[in-house]
Each structure stands twice: as structure tokens, then as C-alpha cells.
Design brief:
single chain, alpha+beta, 4 helices, 18% strand
Length: 160
Amino acid sequence: MPVLRQITTCTEPSTVVIERRVRARDRSVDYRLEVCRRHRWLASNWTGRRSAEGAGGRCGTVTDYRPYTQIVQSHAALWLVPLTTNGPQDHDGDLAAALRAGHELLTAHREPTGVAIALEHAARIAEAVTAGSLPLADGQAQVLAALSTAETLDAGARGA
């Protein structure tokens, strides 16, 4: 099931589409990112075919078809680690611990922002999944929704 993310608060139509194709049994595309001219810089770390074909959707929209683990790794590598200035490491694959570390870094010397609150919420959900008090598929969907919210709030705070 595709996951919809929004990495900008820009409402301009996209002018560039970055689409990473893959030869997997379950999908032909990993993700599709749309950005406008002003936000092209956001696509610098995204690999894939760049073109204007299919552009015109909302700037900053990411339609992600990858498996849960790959989406979470992408959030960490492309967004969370840079946001927290080389913040949470892998934590031996413990997602909740990595999210908690990100929350702690963001709140160490200041009041919690919406971004930090959303990260803490994602960590609590990941912990509930690990404890077995929340079904895996439901928990994964909720973690991705919380991370997506945090990422969009961060984009708004940065003016992206």
C-alpha cells in the first residue's frame, strides 16, 4: 500500500518529478517525488529519473511504495539525522530508541515543538508494537503517519 508524505508546505504545482523505478516482484516504483522550481534543492538527495513528465501535482508530495523498513530508514537518513545534527544512530534496529533519541536531542535545551511531539508519539507507537499491545500493520501505519506529520511540520518551520 503506498504511503503519502508531504515534505513541503508549498502549494505550488510541481515542475519536476523524481521517480525511482525498481524491478521488484511487488512493485515497479520505489517512490515518486514532486517538487516545484523553488524547491528543486530538496530533491538533491533523492535518486531516480528526473523529468517534467507527470508534473503538476502539489510540490513536496512523495508517494512511497517501498516496504515499511525502507521508508523508516529513508526518514532517518534523509530527514531525522540531518534535522538533529547527526542525531539518532541505528540503535541496533530499535526504532523506538532512535525516535526517542531524536526527541531528546530536539528538546534538550528548548520547549518541545510539534516536530518533537510527533517524534515522541511515533516512538510510543513503536514501543506499543514491540510490546505486542498494537497489531504490527496498524502500528506501522501509525508510525509512518506520525513521521510524515513531523516531517511536514518541520518543512513548515523551515519555510519549505
